[in-house]
## 1
Amino acid sequence: MIRKVAIIGTGYIGCFPTSPHLSYKEMMFEAACRAYTDAGIDPRKDADGFVCVSEDFHEGTSIFDEYVPDQIGAYMKPVHTIAGDGIQGLIAAFLKIQTGLMNIVVVEAHSKASNMMFPEHITSLALDPIFNRPVLRNAYSIAAMEMRRYIYERKIPLEALAKVVIKNKLNALKNPSSAYPAYVDADEILAAERCFDPLSSWDIASYADGAFVVIVASEEVARNLKVKPVWIKGVGWCTETPSLETRDWVNATYAERAAEMAYRMAGIKNPAKEIDFAEVDDSFSYKELQHMEAIGLCRKGEAGYLVMEGETGIDGRIPVNPSGGSLGVGNLMDATGLMRIVEAVGQLRREAGRRQVEKAETAVVQSWRGIPTTTGAVVVLGI
Amino acid sequence: MRRVAIVGAGMTKFIRRAQETGKELSFEAANMALNSCELTIKDIDCIVMGTAPDAFDGVHMKGEYLADGAGAWRKPYMRSFVGGGTGVFAVIQGWYHVASGLFDTCLVVCEEKMSSCQPHPQGAFLTIFDNIIERPLGPNLLWIFALEMNRYMSVYKIPKEEIALVAVKNKRNAKDHPCALLGEDITVEDVLKSEVLAWPVQRLDVSPISDGAAAVVLASEDRARRITDKPVWIDGVGWCLDTTYWTNRDLAYPRYVEAAAIMAYKMAGITDPRREIHIAEPYDPFDYKELHHMEGLLLCDKGEAPKLTAKGVTSRDGELPVCPSGGLLGVGNPIAAAGLMKVCEIFWQLREEAGARQVTRKVRTGVAQAWGDLMQVGTVVVLRR
């Protein structure tokens, strides 16, 4: 790697189950102001570039990048959209700093999911219009099929998945920005109706609203600011295939490959030992286990046991999703990745309050773009 | 800064492609680009996709849908998006992937399939406007261009005849382009007599909608020199997004294009673009737009571009050939693919591989530019042999 890159500031607003009191522009403004205050920079003077993460259909507006510059102080500046995941947006900023062209780049992502009347219908529009859409009326059935295949191959009991839900919702209780915290016991979860068998509504993360802004900078800049820099040590991202017919239904290959790339860059040989805590995608309960295995936090087939034994709790051996994850904080669509980055940065700076994990020096953050995609990204952060 | 070159390019025919899906169009262009430099997908480290609104095909997360067509199977793959500016921005994105040092090769694919939007893609364009203030008025994209064109004509006192010359030139140039949809000989009278869509915009002032894809292969300096004897270097990149509130802007001059151009020229070490730029492919979805963008690219004074066109300076045998490909007016306008087509054209011209379209003067430095959003974004790439 040529240049060291740091996260020098984060800001967010949310997360809310619904937010009729705020427009997406107001949420972006609020999150951006907090991030600029955190980093102590002036976007009009100091920021060289901006990346906004959005998908048109989520926003209900085509060419959504039209509506991003003003409220984050970016007009008449180099701004572009990544129609991808929040972490892909962060990587785009990271790459631009690596080129030497820019020194400070701002990344923004938000979710205004409550504006979508039928989010499931929108998700279904992501299916192949010729081969899949006519036969799959609801895209959640893909997650149900994958879950069935995964728990069959790995012999994971439904109790382990219930444990994931319990843990994440419990962690969320310690996170003031979570939208769906709860005390819940396994009996209640296991008794719930299976809406897409074997998925019950507990296994599916509910949508939430929120906006997140992360500022990255080159080493020279980061060292001259008052804030404690959090270094981006490795990045990786990968798309397996959009085809349902040929994808890997057991392993999250996209996460495996992305993690491989990120660990190689960060010089991490044994992630299970070297990573102190992880934020991995849990938009469905089984996904947390699948992704833990994919990014090497445990051997294949081991994730279920780790969860059952409480090793992934905040005070466990390898805390996973101390924020509460998507199950606790809410599914923020493409902003979820940045939510996890904000959490990891807070943990590494030891500002996470009641949910602070004890040893927080190296973290891995992983994201997935949700059904029906096989796209994911991984970032290794450290202090 | 690590130097990055374009080493291969390819594009499909721009026309209504009812038989092919977007994936197939992407594959066709990607394959042509790889073949042109004798590489295979195994040699490619990462893929960049550029494609404009999902509303055209009605496919949500269109980038994900197109991934395998573009060759992104199990590879790092990212889609960038700046509206109409996407075609040139995708090259900028590919540039920073390679210039960052993380990758040695990058395949940039741009695809657009507009014909599936029935009865007309203007229906999809309705959804680009502000959902509270503008959308209830049912605005049409042609209207806002009519406003801009009118403003440009009245500020600089430009007669419609002078603007029509651009359509005449570009459609004539496109006759030599094997991928062109509308290459033909027309006259200024034809333009002035064509149907009025929204005054002063007439049928022949506008580029046609079409389907198509284009692709380029990028490589780092040492790789590029091993792949080809004639690498074309990406020496400058620039992009700029203006405020959302286009109604508060003076539409006579695209200051965002100027800012993007200055950024790219600075990076390329260009201090006097009028002398140092030998060939240009500014974005021309409407004929006045080519003139507008030539001014924004600082290739002439404000309001002077029509005079250069009238004098023949911008024709293929002129001092500063502009849109020798035939541009969007002649070749067609599948949005993101059309932007990348401009980069492909400069690539072929600088390598003297443009065949019947090859410009008369010797060219070493060229600029390609795209524009988009609510008359809001400029994306600029400076290429050198």
## 2
Amino acid sequence: MSDGDLDALIGEVRMEAARRRASPDFPLGRDAELSAELDRLGPSGGADLGVVLEGLDRLAAAAGEAGAAGAAGAVRAAGGAGAAVGAEVAGLTAAAVRALSMRLRHLERRAGEPRGVRPPEAAPGPSRGEAPDILSLWGDDVAAAARRGGGGRVLVAGAGAEPWVQMLDAAGLEAYGVDPTLPAYGDRELVRAGRLVDHLRSVGESALGLAVLVGPLPMDEILVLPEVAALLGRAAASVAVVSEAPWSWRLRVGIPAEDVSPSRPLAAETWLAELSAAGFESTASYAPRGDSYRVAARRAGS
Amino acid sequence: MKLGLLIPRYGEEALGGIENWLRSLCERLVAERGWEVDVYTTCASSAETWADDYPPGSTELNGVRVHRYRATSGRDPRYLHMIPRLRADPASVGEEWADRYLRLVGPVCPEAVAAAAGAPCHAVAVAPYLYWPAVEGVPALGPRVVFHPAAHDEPELHLPPMRRVFAAAGGFAYNTFAERELVESTFPVGHLPSEVVGIAVKGERGDPLHARRSLGLDPGERYVLCVGKVERAKGCAVLADMWRIYRQRRPDAPRLVFVGPVHDRIDAPDGVLLAGRQPEEVKWGALAGCEAVVSPSAQESFSLVVLEAWLAGRPVVVNSRCGPTVEHCLRSGGGLIFDGYGELEVAVDVLLGDAALARTLAERGRSYAETVFAWPTVLDRYERLVAAVARMAGAGRR
């Protein structure tokens, strides 16, 4: 057995368990029964899957009896308790779906990396030249937008969110960050590890005064950009996107690195389109050199 | 800083996990950070009845002012009749049904809630989410609440009133990242200040020889340990069954010893010892003398036992379905994980057969427990959270 990395050790334990399960003297049936019992006792989205399945069995048996009593019996059963049975079936089905979804999430987690999702790289490969200092260029602008943002907290999302949060915190604003490049469980003082899209799903309606998006966007969030924009529209009164311009980034990192990069900056025009579709009124400004931009968006009518 | 605490029971006799933890936390905040802490609670010490064991009125306990109020009702056994429906589909029971259930579980103590709401504190800690004082208290206290939900994925979390309760809090003190993920995937509270504060732990010395005598084990006998309430819901019956299979396949395998109050009768086959509730010094001696600790439960909000095993220098094996214990293992690199009997068999074989690896794992766990959950670190995290909640509540911002 490996004496080093826990991930490797966990993998070896699973492989060895699988090898033993394939052996003819392994108590496969008991193993399955006991695992099923542990599943039943495990997270279930609140509903006890055992109770749900018993309920469905009971209803199925009742339906069977009604059927056996002939058409008249079935009609009586349907007429007498149809609405109640229908409601019970609907309730049990909803509970079963919730419980099974929780199981599926658990299985996905077990099948995935033991330490969780690997963070995307903040910036690809060796680069030529310096990236523009977007914090110096746009920091005051974002702080001013945060002060106008209304009552809620300021969320800063993206690779390198921490200095932005520190800047806003020092300016007396209630700010926190979400950074997809931090390792799982690797929260910093005011910045938590995670993806913007996952975090926005857990944010209350109109709860944020301002959402600030900085740095390159991971590819898995680019693929769900309309959802990100819609979630921003639900959660935030206003949005600021501050980013290096794609042409500057492309020039800096080179084509091979660009092609394989797991994250990249989007064009300001892309944000304008997506935020507009999500109900924001937005404008874009470029820095004098044109190598970075800021998109400012307010919810239409606010 | 002036902190209030609204909690169903408080005192040296109130032996629940969250109650013990918050009492220690309050005492440390007073002694080491110079805070003033006022506790608003009932006269109960037992969660099984919520009966009045303490007199009402104000007293002081280790520097913490404690204000006790009589509950208008305690735990009413009629709640037991409601459990089948609760377990089938808690989200669909309706507000009225849920309100009746929560009142029957108790303790209903409007005076404690009113006193906490009127207290001149910067922030009020409320715990746990499961009982009437939190369900009524969090919405009444609103943005000043530092909520310690102590949540795990159980039916009560999905009752309709809980959405309103969780959304009303000012901030959250979580025990683990897994608890934060569960709460934030259930309620829209991700934007509120929160910290994964955890629970501070400290190892105790234990005498393995004395523990062996107390548990009825031979002086040199090897054994694997499971510590905590012996309940079916905690996976104890499944673990006992798995150990029966293990002993059939490994006739010279050590015994499995359960230390903790036996709440459910479970079939203890040959090779499984139910030692019952034991004094703390016996528990620590048993931890120090065992080969490994198994945690079969899938429903933990923190699991002190896993950290205590590491502090006693012993490796652990945990149920893969339990977010918090798996999190401890992955963060520390110090524990093995089982899905079913197959992985448990391999993990126990490895730990019994490779003492060096067992020591390495336990050492990693100990280092994690001593750094992440040391008192000064935990107090710093808590102080930061309470300051953020108080600041936002003071500014009228949520």
